[in-house]
Design brief:
single chain, about 375 residues, D-Maltodextrin-Binding Protein, domain 2, about 70% helix
Length: about 375
């Protein structure tokens, strides 16, 4: 185990560089997990200006805004309505023209203006839908059109329901894949490049160590380093997140190890095609970002176009995030399959890296 021991000594000599990367890793994990915090939510208050009207619909809308907004009565003048919007005095101004039609005036760049316009149109739509024999049901329309947002605050001592757990743990452990694969590829990849200096490689070439034995020992040493990184990151996430009894931590851990294994194989492939450590570091950053974006670590995969979702199936991170989603929701039948795919990705990357390394050695 000469290569194994010598490589571990190289990692120890690079401890400052490794500690820097571990600090970056901790920052990513902590920032992600601590992102859930209590916020203050204020109910939106709308300022509405309306003229008097003659139609039943318009008068019903006036009564609705009288009860549910800061109301201002104006004359039926288009210029006056536009003036109030221009001055920012109201969010929406409505008048009934001579033809009995309702005219809306809002600032297109105002969020509150868009909300007020939508509320007015929704109310009128519900008013017509609920009409029976030409009679408008104002009470029912008002009840339907009142929109309320239920905001649940998450505090440390509160008991989370299953839906909230699914959201928090899926988001956190999915995002964890980005700093994890970035750390493995950049940190360990740079360490291998440093290890493969001319002096070390000349000694290895003169020794009786076979090519396959060399790669096996290198892989075992990096596997040990990978397990340390995974356990460290998992413990950091566990410290910042409180313990929940029905969260499948073991499945999460096995899934993370499987994904890290695929990242390790990709790192080995990247190292064997890289000319220097700077290429490794730059390529690792680009690949990690591409994987994270296409696989749904940054943006939920369901929000991405179909083309991107199809491409994501060629990345191990996609199966890691899918397994996380199944784990928290209690679907365990396909989790083993997704974990197996990640392991197969890692083996394929590693064997391809060994093959490229052998080709390079034959050319030399």
């Amino acid at each position: 185990m000469i290569v194994y021991k010598y490589y571990l000594k190289t990692l120890y000599r690079m401890r400052r560089f490794l500690l820097l990367w571990m600090a970056i890793f901790v920052f990513f994990v902590a920032a992600n997990v601590m992102g859930v915090k209590e916020e203050k939510y204020n109910e939106i208050s709308l300022d509405v200006a309306m003229s008097k009207g003659s139609s039943q619909e318009y008068e019903s809308l006036r009564e609705y805004f009288l009860e549910n907004a800061n109301f201002m009565e104006i004359e039926a003048s288009v210029d006056r309505a536009k003036e109030l919007i221009y001055l920012g005095a109201v969010d929406i101004a409505l008048i009934e023209n001579e033809g009995g039609q309702i005219e809306y005036f809002t600032n297109p760049s105002s969020n509150k203006g868009r909300i007020a316009s939508r509320k007015a149109k929704d109310y009128l739509k519900f008013l017509n839908i609920t009409a029976v024999n030409g009679e408008l049901d104002k009470e029912l329309s008002t009840k339907i059109s009142k929109e309320k947002v239920a905001v649940r605050m998450y505090k440390k001592d509160d008991k989370m329901d299953h839906t909230l757990k699914a959201i928090l743990y899926n988001r956190s452990f999915s995002f964890l894949s980005y700093p994890l694969i970035l750390t493995i590829m950049s940190m360990l990849g740079t360490a291998i490049i440093v290890f493969r200096n001319k002096e070390a490689m000349s000694r290895i070439s003169l020794s009786a160590i076979k090519h396959s034995r060399y790669h096996l020992e290198m892989f075992l040493a990096n596997l040990l380093a990978m397990i340390v990184i995974v356990c460290f990151g998992y413990l950091i996430a566990f410290v910042f997140f409180r313990y929940e009894r029905d969260v499948p931590y073991l499945i999460y851990f096995v899934n993370i190890v499987s994904f890290a294994f695929s990242g390790l194989g990709l790192m080995y492939l990247l190292v064997n095609i890289s000319p220097n450590k700077y290429f490794v570091s730059g390529s690792a950053n680009i690949l990690a970002l591409i994987f994270a974006f296409f696989s749904g670590a940054f943006v939920p995969i369901n929000f991405l176009p179909q083309l991107i979702r199809s491409i994501a199936r060629f990345f191990p991170m996609f199966y890691y995030i899918k397994a996380n989603s199944l784990a928290i929701n209690g679907y365990s039948s396909d989790i083993g399959f997704y974990i197996l795919i990640q392991l197969l990705f890692g083996i394929a990357f590693y064997l391809l890296g060994v093959f490229i390394s052998r080709l390079k050695k034959e050319k030399v």
